[in-house]
Every structure is written in C-alpha cells, then in structure tokens.
Amino acid sequence: MAVLKVGSFPGLVPRATARGMGGAGAQVSHNLLQTSADFRPLLGDSQVATCPAGVQSLYRMMRDANGVIQQGDSTGWITSPEARRYVRGQINDDATERTVVFSRDGKQAPQMTTVAGDFRLLGVPAPAKPAVKLNETSQFTAEDARTWLSGTMVPAVVKAIQTATKPVNQVTGRITAGKPRAGAYEMFGLTQSTTEQWFGELTMTLADAKDKGLNVTGTSGFQSGANWVIRLMCLPFWGELDTTVLAAELRKIESPKDGTQVFSDAQITTLVQEFGKFLDPADTSIKSYRDQMDVVVRKFKKAIDEAVRASAAAARPTEPTKPTVPEFVPDYSGETMSMTRAPEWIAYDAAMAQYRKDLRAWEDQKTGSATQNTDSVAVIQECQKEATRLTSTVIEAEYLKRMNNLQTYIQDWASGKSLSKKDDPNGLLDVDPDRIIEDRFYLVTFKTDRGEESAPSEVTDVLQVDQNDTVNVQRPPVPAGRNILTWCVYRSATGNVAASWRLVDEVVITQGLFVDKVPSSMLGQQCPSMTWAEPPLRRDPKSAATIKPPKGEDPYLRDGVAMPNGIVAAFLDNFVAFCVPYRPFAWPVEFQITTDTPIVGLGVFGQSLFVGTRAHPYIISGSSSGSMTSVKLSQEQACVSADSIVSADGGGVLYASPDGLCLANASGVQVISEALWAREDWQRLNPSSIVAICQDSVYYFWCDGGTFALDFKAMRLGTVDLPRGPVHKDYITDAVYVAQAGAVMKLFSQGRRTGRYKTGIMLLAAQAPLAWVQVEGEQSPAAPATIRWLGEGQLRHTKQLSSVEPKRMPPGRWREHVLEIEGESRVASVVMAGTTEELRNV
User: Fold this and answer.
1) pLDDT tens, 704-728?
2) Average pLDDT over residues 325-349
3) Contacts for 264-269: CB closer than 8 Å, 24+ residues apart
4) What is the chain's alpha carbon radius of gyration, rounded to the nearest angstrom?
C-alpha cells in the first residue's frame, strides 16, 4: 500500500541534497511561475523592437517626440554601447520628459536627454566674476526741488503777480467802469477828485453852500471858483490783476532740471483763478469792509441831501414895494374936500401886514433849519472820519498787507503742492529720488533655454551707489555648447554680502552689457540658485589650476536613482549627492552625505534611500533633499553588485551580499536566502555578477551560475530561461524588457514556456508497487503533460498525459522515487498509487 503525491511544487533548495529535501524541495523547478503553488509554466517572450547589437543599456521614454504618452511598446527605445542608468526627472508638466543619464562606471559626465533625443551635459556652469562700473548721475532730488521752489520759483511767481497787477501806482486804479474798485458798490452821485483821486466829491454853488450852512471848514469843503466842494475819502486803492499777463509770466517759469515749462496750461488756468481770488476786491474776505463803506457813503450823501431839502422848503418872504403915487389924495365926494389914502397905499399896508406875518414865520422856520443843518454837518463829518478810516487803515491797508505778504502767501501755497510728478500727476517737477547711498554687490547666473539656472558667480567688489546712479554690469564669457539663453543679474538688497540677493533683470545672452537703473522697490525675487552647483565630481586637489581638473578615469557621479518629491540621488566614491527637489540639474554641496566606506549602489523604498557599501549598508531618509538623515545599519552585509539592488514589493530593498540575498529596510538587514543557499553555495554563483529585476513579487536575477527566479515572500526558488542583456522595467506597460542580439524582447508576454519540475527523492517505508498515475491539470492533446518516473535513481517510465484520467504504470517495486513533470500546461497535482482505491482516496 503506497501513495506518492506532488501538490504544492516547492522550489529549489540548493543547500539541501535531493535525499535530504525529500518532497519539501525540488531538484529542478524551471520556467515556472514561482508565486504559484501549481506547476505553472511562465509565458514566453516576444520581440517588440530592434536595436543595435552589443548594447549595454536599455531604456524607454514614456512620451513620444510630441509629448504624448507612448501607445504600445515598439517605440521610444534608447540604447547605448555604454552601461548607463536613466532616471526620469520629476518635473511639473514636463512634456519633453527630461531624463538624467548616468554612466554606470563614472567615466562619463552625467547628461540629460529628452524625447527629442538630444543629449547635453547635466547642470549649468556658473559664470565667472562679472565686471562692474559705477556711473554717477547728475541728480535733481526732492531736496534740490524744495530749495529751488523757495529760492527761485516762489520769487518768480511773486514777480509774475506783481507784473500782472495794474496800475502800478496808487493814484489810479480806484474806479473801474464808473464804480469804486474796493470801496462802496456805487458812487451815489459823487465824482472822483481829479487831483486827489482817493476822494469822492459833491459840488454846489458857494451861495447855496452858504445858504444851507454847509460852507463850514469842518466839512472838509473848499471853494473852487463860484462853487463849494465837499469831499469824502471813499475811493481806496486796489490793484487789478491782468490774467492774460499773469498767465504769460507763469509760462516763463522753467524747470531747473530740463528747462521745460514748469506749469502746464491747465495748471496755469487754475493758478490764475486762485491768485485772482487773492487780489479780488469782490472776495468775501473784504466784503464786510466794503459793506461798511457802502453804508458810510450812503449816509454821507443822505446828510447833504437832507440839508439841501431843508433849506429849499423855507424861502425868505419878499418885502412889498412901496407905491410911487402920493399916499393921500383929495376927496371931493363929500360936502367938503378931505384927504384920503390912495388905494395903492391901502393895498401896500395890507401887503406889509402879511409880509410881517410871513417874515416872522420864516424867521421861526429858519431857526429850525439852522438846527437841522447843524446836525447834517455833524453826520457829514462823522462819515468823512469813518470813510477815511476804512479807506486808509482798513481796505488799502489790507491790500498793501496782501501785496507785502505776497511772498509768504505764495510760499504757503507752494508748500501745499506736490513737487514730484511721480508721486502726484499734478506735481510740478520730474524729481529724482532722494540721495540714498548704499554699499552694493553684484553677482550673475546663467540660464538655459529650459529655464535651468546656474549657481551664481563670485561676488563683485563693493560699490557705493546712490539710488539715482546707474551701474554697468559686464556679462562674463559664455561657455560654448551649454545652451545658455539668458543671464540673470542680482544685487545685494541691504548692502551686505550676506544679505539676500534680489533679481535686477534677466538679459538675453547676446547682450553683453547691462545698465542697472532699477530702483530698490522694483527688485524681483531672491536668487533661488545660490547653492545650485553642477553635479559633483572627483577633482585633483594637488593641481595648481584655479579650477581643479577631474582626477582619475572615473571621476563622475554615477548610478542615479529617482526618489519621491522630485529628488534624484547618485553617488561618487563614499558620498551620496542629492539634487534640488524637482531640479535635477542642481546639486548643492550641502545636500551630500558621506559613508565610511566606498559606495557600491543605491536603491529606493518609500521615502528612503538604501546605500549599499563595501561594508555596512546605510538608510537615508527624508522628504526633502535638505532634510535627509542617515542611519548606518549594524549588520555588516556589504553590497557586492549594484545591479542586484531592486526595490522589493511590500517595502525594502533586495541586494546581493557575500552571504546571500538580503532584504534591507528601516528595521535592518536580513539575509533572506539562508534557507536556500549556504554561503559557499551562494559564492559559487559569483554574486558580484548578479543583474536583477523585480516583477510581480519575483526577484529575477542573472549571474554566472545561471538565471533564477525567487518568490522572496514565499521563498520559492526556480530557474528560468531568459535572454541575457541589458534589462529595463517599464512602469507604464508593467513589463520587463531585455536587449539581446539586436532585438528588444518583452519578457512573459506571449505563448508559453515549457516548464520542468523534478522532485527531491521521496522515500516509502518499504518497496511497494505504484501501478497508477493521475495528473490534475489543464493538459490536453495539444499540450500534454509528460511524467517521468525514476526509481532508485533510474528512469523507470515516461508517460504523456493529455487528460485527467488515471493511467496505468508498468510494474516495479522501489523505495526511492523521483517524479519529473514537463510541459506547457498548468498542473495542480501529480498522484501515484498502488490501486485505484488508493487513488480515489487521495
């Protein structure tokens, strides 16, 4: 009674013997999918493109020349006769797919390529120290403008007003259009004196004046021929501003900076109106005085009129004329003649009686009129006194005060005006900024046609620059063949070498001289590339040259890898360098981390970088190039092959050490292959020759000892027939490609490989016959499963099965059994039993 079953198809165990592994291992597990517990042959390979024979590197661009994602996998291939590492730059919206190219051996400088197929050196060389020259500028500052305003412009405006004011003397200029300029609002019957024009005069006959009692000296009257003249000082002087002349005079005032007209025509119109108000007798500021003068003149005229009316109403009665006939005449009408008064005399007597009555009445009236005229004279005198005060000490004094204070008025007016046209569109002058002297330094950078900016040049010598001065900045020599398109000029922002550097301007590279006239307020962004050096290289410190030459035949950065957040890392000798995030052309010295032994290769998992050295590995972690921290792992598991380093599914990095295949992560290093290979078995593979790729949790690796496939999670090992050559894993197609013999082969893409599996030696308790075999699988007549049965080390029988039906086996009794399965079909299990009943019970 005996049963043999192969159901889980465990992998190879090189460190175990065939007898020792029994059914727990395989002597052969070839071309099988190691992540499957079944006998499952791998897919075959297909050619997708051609390539030159003998290439040493293979890479595929994600986009085509138009920046469109590649469709299919027959295009976009880049090959090289040198061993290279390609790292796609993580650049925002980069349709050109800028890709960094490192030589694997460090014998060539790093390059950058794009979908256009152009290769150029990585990085941008820093310019040499630029030459600078100070240009001192003649300036007209606000301080100069204020001096000019008070010393030149104000007197010029005063002179313009004085020139435009008429008349120029105080004799004339008291009446305009028959009305006082600054006195009462009307003349009220007065006429201007022809000799003393500040008087208004009323003229009457001398007889009338005497008759009316107005010819008294207290009325300031005087005799002029047969007339009597009474005066009133009611015509104050007030100059008249000729606006046409003033406008013309204002136009003559020139800017001290450029000789142009200071005031615009619009400003002159406004100024003429404004200055006109200052000297306008109708202005509200003297209205109260003119109102008072108007009252005085009216009162003066009324007093004289009332005196005249009073005298005219009381004319002296006329004495009757005596008759010329005899007073008495004979009367013969009676008996006797008598003498009687003549009628003329009787009438005369009656007229005289009336005359005497009228005379007494007139004399009484005259006494009252005299009293009234005396009052009028008092009013006239009062008016003359008040009018004199208003004229000379108020109105004319106000005018003279204004004219005498014209300088102060214009000075006050000017102090309220904006000087600079830059500060105010209505400003008077083009004023340069104030003199501010600063210590200034310059530096420059180069920028490529892709916007890649170099590290800055050496800082210039200090210049003491006024903000109104200009500075000539001479562009340094431009290196040939580096695609430099522009150069950027920066200057110190606070007059200190350690201060921030602000952009002055970006200048086309063909312009060799830049004149800096940019004010500090208009400076641009800070220089972002202060530390953006070219990729580091090993230089000869013993060289006498200013710029040390490369040292050795392999002085360049190599074996770059892409990390998250736009970081590219690479190494040289015993230090790792990191680029500026998202700027793979910039490699600051500050972003370098040193190890204690030479570095072999790099790998990435999560946000961490695995650094394989010739001794202890390192884990460097960080979200940004400037915040990386390094941890030296305690396990002394050196990396013997840079090509063996791959990122492991699930976290960590797989790599070959002298002791076996290692898994490194933040927790440390574990030799995961110890159960499969003893160290001497592993060494026979020559682990330094390993080239590996990870696909679907299987670590495929080529080495001198063969080609292997390891499910590093289940630790199931097998061998596989794979083309040998430079390998590329494409994350867009999720496929692995190998260049071999002029062809680019896509692995595991079509057809089916022929799988082969051979168990270890399975022992029965005693020799027993095994008469039946059954294969549970997908075999068919087109793809049968071939079973080979070895007993006691000898091939006993070979059978092809094209169905799951049990088949008879030839007779024979053996204790040691080995089963070998070969085919393209998937097989779940193989069972051999002595009887059909045993077969059914399995």
Assistant:
1) 999 999 999 999 999 999 999 999 9
2) 79
3) 267/426
4) 62
**Contact by Cβ (8 Å): 395, 233:** no
Q: Which of 57-66, 152-161, 280-289, 336-345 has the lowest mean pLDDT?
A: 336-345
**Among the listed residues 311, 306, 300, the one whose alpha carbon sits nearest the alpha carbon of residue 189:** 300
State the Cα–Cα distance between residues 22 and 13, nearest whole angstrom.
11
Instruction: Tell me the pLDDT tens digit for each residue of 774-830.
Output: 999 999 999 999 999 999 999 999 999 999 999 999 988 999 999 999 999 999 999
- Secondary structure element (H or E) that encloses residue 306, with its range: helix 287-312
φ and ψ at residue 628, rounded to 5 degrees: -70, 140
Q: What is the residue type of 443?
A: L
∠ CA 353-358-362 to the nearest 5 degrees?
Answer: 150
Question: Concatenated DSSP letters for 674-720?
Answer: TTT--HHHHHHT-GGG-EEEEETTEEEEEETTEEEEEETTTTEEEE-
Q: How many CA atoms lie within 13 A of 744 on its CB side?
A: 24
Cα angle 462-468-474, degrees, rounded to a multiple of 5: 50
Is residue 399's pLDDT more than 90?
Answer: no
Record the tokens describing residue 227, joined without a space: 């007339």
For residues 103 and 83, give the distance between their C-alpha atoms in angstroms, rounded to a whole number: 6
d(CA 245, CA 150): 23
pLDDT at residue 478 above 90?
A: yes
DSSP state of 566: T
DSSP state of 589: G
For residue 835, give the amino acid letter: T
Contact between 525 and 517 under an 8 Å Cβ cutoff? The reply is no
Element (H, E) at 736: strand 735-740
Q: What 3-state class would DSSP assign to 242?
A: coil
Residue from 641, 685, 663 nearest 15 by CA: 685
Tokens encoding 568: 């590219």
Report the CATH architecture of 3-42+753-841.
Sandwich (2.60)
Q: Is 625 exposed, middle or buried (0-12, 13-18, 19+ CB in 10 A)?
A: buried
Closest CA to 629 of 598, 657, 607: 607
Q: Where in the chain is the domain with CATH 2.60.120?
A: 3-42+753-841
Contacts of 433 (CB under 8 A, 6+ apart): 141, 142, 467, 468, 519
Query: What is the distance between the alpha carbons of residues 314 and 211, in angstroms, rounded to a whole number?
Result: 11
CA distance 309 to 369: 10
Alpha-carbon gap, residue 449 to 508, rounded angstroms: 11
The residues, any chain, with a CB within 8 Å of residue 375's CB and separated by 6 or more, are none
Find, among 786, 719, 803, 789, the residue nearest to 761 by Cα: 789
Instruction: In whole angstroms, give the CA distance from residue 243 to residue 252.
Output: 14
**Three-state secondary structure call for residue 794:** strand
| Burial of residue 112 (number of CB atoms within 10 Å: 0-12, 13-18, 19+) | buried
Q: In what order do the strands lie in the sheet with 735-740?
A: 44-50, 743-750, 735-740, 727-730
Q: Is the pLDDT of residue 140 over 90?
A: no
Q: Return the structure tokens found at 734.
A: 């999720």
Residue 351 pLDDT level (bands cut at 50, 70, 90): confident
